[in-house]
Write a structure and sequence with these properties.
Layout lengths: L3 H5 L5 E5 L9 H7 L17 H9 L12 H11 L1 H12 L3 E5 L10 H8 L2 E7 H11 L5 H12 L5 E4 L16 H14 L11 H13 L3 E6 L17 H6 L6 E6 L4 H10 L3 E3 L2 H7 L3 H8 L19 H25 L3 H20 L13
Parallel strand pairs: 1-2, 2-3, 3-4, 4-5, 5-6, 6-7
Length: 386
Amino acid sequence: MPTSTEWLTTLDLVDHHCHGVVESDLTRPQFEDLITESDVPAPAGTTHFDTQLGMALRAHCPPVLDLPAFASPDDYLARRAELGAHEVNQRLLRASGITDYVVETGFRPDLILSPEQMGERGAARSAEVVRLELLAEQVAAAHDPADFLTAFRARLDHELTRAVGVKSVAAYRGGFELDPTPPGEEEVTRAVVQWRAQTPEGQPLRLTDPVLIRAGWWEAIHRAVPIQLHVGYGDPDVDLHRTNPLLLSDLLRNARCSGASFLLLHCYPFHREAGYLAHVFEHVYCDVGLAVNYTGAQSAQVIAESLELTPFHKALFSSDAWGAAELFHLGAVLFRRGLGEALERWAAADGWPAEEQERIARMICSENARRVYGLDRTGRATGETR
């Protein structure tokens, strides 16, 4: 059997949670902002390239742009500028070997490529996931509070005529310590009144109200669609201790038999807790998306740990890439390598047959995502999850 990396590169890879890339030339500060979860530049005299992600980028991305591995950051960014953003995006996305992008469009969509453009640049299929909090903000800005719930339901139904699922960023808006039951209609109306009254004149609405976050969750649950939830590691807006997925246990119990699926995203450092939830709840899936790039050379251990309890038919791949095409390429390279190393180690311990290793890898790399999102081979929704 070839080495793990060689045979895994022949498998389809569905990136079940990602965003678009920026297609404009970037200054060094702008690029460094895309390779960190910090919201400030590195201290004077230092660089965000001096991280696990930065070293992984220098190891794997320069050859795609015709440079030697570990070219200096200055040389790499100069070559990036020489080629231009369109060419860089196309090269890196296609080199990733990702065959399907499931693109969440709720964060700064005006700055990034659309799902359709991502598919074209990457010579891949694409589908869309919509963000519940953004829909609520748009609906609340356009309708009276008494009409909010009716309008939100209509808007969600409209979006789901093309989108294959929804996402919630409740982790960034207060965390998971929420009542796990659906709110009543009068409770929702009162919450919208208060939300609008507390928003300063001229400021955009930003949803943090737990009643309305719950309302969005339950409208999605009632529609039996895949629901992505950011879990764990993220930027400084996250209070990490409030994003432990075990806090979702009662919600998950209440949503059993609804037909909805829950996709726990990233999960680090709670990837073992997420694996437990995927193990005991039939409608829960998980990944270690964002953590793969940010742990770099250590990512193989994180991937293996995430699969200690997660059933192989419940694990998925994602990059959570936004802005920089490098993050897609790195996510794919590191994930294939880490999964391959884990399978080889388990095979060495217990003699797992080569065909069983490949069967498991196919599930994790693509088949699980196709099944849970109802994707056919064109990347479009089949309707099976509805």
